[in-house]
Structure formats: structure tokens, C-alpha cells
């Protein structure tokens, strides 16, 4: 992975300032400490910071086609580049590097922006065509790699991270309250929303094109499940297990392509364990590094026995990173800086500790199990839906209206009762903020394409919502890419392989959730690969300690950020309500149940950190 940044004057009249581009790239040094490259031509400026993974001695960017009129800077990996390279060479294309991204410029020569359909990878790419003066920016199918953009005073500015965009003099610093509302109401931000007004996240599976002074974002891919019932008789269980195992093994093999060491994060759960098992199957004699967070504090859930079981069974070079409660407070500001948004859970700090350990061990590429829960029916919500189907109960009229507004149908439920919650969330905001947000705020309209939910099986509906509202910008974004890249670590995710996903779309829901047994297909495929204790253990979601613990530290900087006078000066939040919640927490000494309670105090605290770090204005 790397980092990209750039800008283009849409009128074409003003030449690009090289000093501005340099400042933007300096701000994302952590994404690519191994080198830098720039391209400036008239009104166009593009650059990148490089993290060398493939062809470390070559493949310096920008990359060009044979005639030099197609220019590319990119972030990420094209995992099927070897196959694409052979096909392109057979058609007469000449390559100057041994890297993966060069295939893109030659594919673009042949098929324009349709090249993206040939790619199996994770990427954000900026491609400039001198022949037509068109700029194209592309984000991968699931949104593993981020890219943001905005138009300011006739200049389009883009970058992997927003902090780079803020280095451009045309880009203002303004809070998007709808973004804060999304973080409160949903798992996290959902593209194209960001925490910065006027700055959009290019959604997963989209291409942004700048042609003839017009900026257009188009969707080139989406998770398109079949109509309900269509998939039920397309394959037997044995066929599904065999096909899944074949495609998953190939997905892992593609993600082992690197000229550097490749490791794995071991959580102690099934998803990372099967990734690790297939890595060992593919590399029986190689030393494979693994990394796990452990919690010596006995009040926290500790997965050491499961992590060690997998690591010892597979004979990995295992690294345990002891994580204490104190690290949550000490890493919180860095977590917000790299996330570029407030957070309502502190586990991002744990991911940062993992990434730091991997970098210290000289392992810049780490595989993970993200995507399995969303695509194979792994969260408790899937079981809830199954139970509710057998024990139907009518939602209140209030909830039906909310469900209809958000998901396009009164009977689609997701995560919480949004009719009631739309009133509760109003407690967080000040009167001025509520005026700016409007009556419903982010709950007033869908956050995804509701057409992709119509006529689908309930499991597929939840899967689609999970991929859009939880996976892309939250788990892969602020929790994954941002925390890994804080220490120049590239995360790779076999479950999000395009070929595997094409297959999983067709798998009958009954093979993903068998009765109330989640991830049934994955468990069948894992038999003989993963220890029985891992297969049979109960799934749970770990949550790191939240605001009650942080308040108990009595840290002066925490006290200052949550002080009534600070909140009142900033103007965004309801001072009396936040203060009452803080006082209640301190008096009772209770702990939050993170699975059913929202940590609004932590959100207020990290929002204060966000305002401070990014020098955001008061309301």
C-alpha cells in the first residue's frame, strides 16, 4: 500500500504549485516511507508516497504507458497482475517494471476505465490521460483502500487521507455534523460522507472522472445478490465446500505475492485461523510470523489460549503483544489523528499496537480475516433474523416508518430500533447543531442503494447492509487501513477476493446459516485445517474498555476536553446532557455493555480530540 495525493485546476488556466503537492505528500509520509514520486503538467499535479512490497528496487511511480501519455499513481495491490501481464505482453505491450500496477496503464490503453473489471485487488488509483486531459480516480470493489476528494474554488483536490487535502490552500476546515451523526447512529461513517464538510470519500466500487471541467462519480461494481429463492438449489453442500475451499486457497495464494515477509494477525477466532492454516498449507517450510494482542489485565477477555493453540499447531513464529488499559489513553489521540474521525469504541488502539509490532519485526504485509462475518453470516444479527422469522412480531408504527425510510421496507431491521433512537440521539447535539442537522439528521434518508435490498433473502439483505454500513469505511477504513498504515503496514484480506465473492453471492443462505449455526459453510471447509477447539468455540465480539475507564484515570487533558466550558465554547454538543452522563458514570462506577449501549461520552471525548487535532472551528 502507499498514499496518493493531487489536484487539478478544472479551468486549466492555473498551473499547479509543486510546493503544495510536496506538502500534501509529506503529510502522509507514514503511508509510504520508502520513496516518493510526482507528476506535474500545467494544471495537473499528482504524487505518491511508496511502501515497497513488490519489485522493491523498481516500479517507481508515476508509471507511464509506452508513449508516455497515460500517467498513473496508485495505492494498493493488483493481486492477479502476473496473469494480466502475460495476457498484455501476448498482445504486444511492453513493460518497464516487474511490479503490479503497471498492468493498469496498458489495460487502460485497450479498454478505458473498463479496465477496472479485470482487476482482483485492493487499490485507489489516479490516472491522467494527456490525450483527452481527463483524470480518473478509482477505488477498489470493497473499499479496502481509501481515497477522498472535493472541489474548492474550481480546483479538484484528492488524497488517500484527508489530512493531505487540508494542506491545499483552497480546502477549508469545516465540520460535517451529518458525519458525526452517522458515527453515533451506525457502526461508523458511510461513503461518501466524511467528517469534513465539502470532502467526500469516494465510495467502494466507484470511479471519479474529471472531463471537460465536469466531475462525475459512477458506480462500476456492487454486491448484487440474486432474488430470494433463486440460489437455493444451485449447489449441494459438498459442491459448495469444495468450491469454497478451492477459491479461498487461491485467494490466500494471491495475497502471499510479495517481495517482503508476509505475516498474519491471529485473533483466536475461526476467520483468522483458517487464513493462517491455508498460509501454512501453501508454505509448508517457510517461517511465517503471526501477531496477537493479549490482555494481561484479568478483567479483559484474553484470547491467548486460542491464539497460542493455532500458532503452535501451525508452527508459526508467534509474537504476543501485551496490551494494558493504560495504552488506550496514551494511544487515543494518535488513533483519532489517523482515523480522521471521532470514535465510540477504543479497539482501534489495539490494532495500532499490532501494526507497530509487525513493523518492528520487519513484516510490512499482514493478512487478516475481515469480510467473513459479512459474507458468510457470522454476526449475531443473522441468528436474530432467523429466530425472528420463526417467531414474527409486528414492529411498532414508529419503527416501520424508520425502517421504510432507511432500508426501503418496514420489516427490514438492522442493529437498533431507529424510530426510538432518532429521538435519543437528539440528546447529544446542541440546539444550533440540531438546527443544522434537521429533524431526522442522517436518519432522514437511506445511506445505501435500497434497490439492492428489494426482493432479496433476509440474510442477503443484512449482508448487503453490513458490507456497506460496517465493513467498507469502518472495519476496513478507520479500524483497518488507517491503523495499519499508521505504522506503514499493508493489510490484505482473502475473504474479499473478487473471485471468492462472485462465488459466495451464489451460495444459498441455508449453507451460510444452518438453523442458528453461523458461518456453517466456513466451518465445514475448516474441518481438518483448524483445531476442533477453534471450530466449536462460541463467537463473541471483543470490545476494549470505554469512557468509564478513561474517566477513572482523572487525566487533566480528558477533564479539559469534557469540561462544560470547553463543550459550550465549541458549540456542537448538548453540554447539560453530556455532563449529566459523565456525573452518572462517576457516581455509579458502572461499566457500559458495549453490545447494547452507545458510549456517547467516548464519542464526545474523541470528537473534542478531533476538533483539536485538525484545528476545526467552533460552531
Helix content: 40-55%
Q: Give the biggest sheet.
A: 6 strands, antiparallel
Strand content: 15-25%
CATH fold name of the largest domain, please?
Glutamine Phosphoribosylpyrophosphate, subunit 1, domain 1
Calculate Rg over CA atoms. 24 Å
* Total count of helical runs of at least 4 residues: 25
Averaged pLDDT: 93
- Morphology call: globular
Secondary structure class reads alpha+beta
Q: Using DSSP, what is the number of strands?
A: 17
- Any idea how many domains? 4
CATH class of the largest domain, please? Alpha Beta
What's the CATH H-level superfamily name of the largest domain? Aminohydrolase, N-terminal nucleophile (Ntn) domain
List the uncertain runs. none
Describe this structure in words.
The protein has 619 residues and is α+β, with helices and mostly antiparallel strands. It folds into four domains: 3-219, 4-Layer Sandwich (Glutamine Phosphoribosylpyrophosphate, subunit 1, domain 1); 237-375 and 489-536, 3-Layer(aba) Sandwich (Rossmann fold), CATH 3.40.50; 392-457, no CATH class; 547-613, no CATH class. Helix content is 41%, strand content 15%. It contains 25 helices and 17 strands. The strands form three sheets. A six-stranded antiparallel β-sheet has the order 2-3-1-9-8-10. Helix 8 (304-314) links the parallel strand 14 (289-294) and strand 15. Helix 6 (237-254) runs antiparallel to helix 17 and helix 9 packs across helix 25. It is globular. The model has no long low-confidence stretch (mean pLDDT 93).
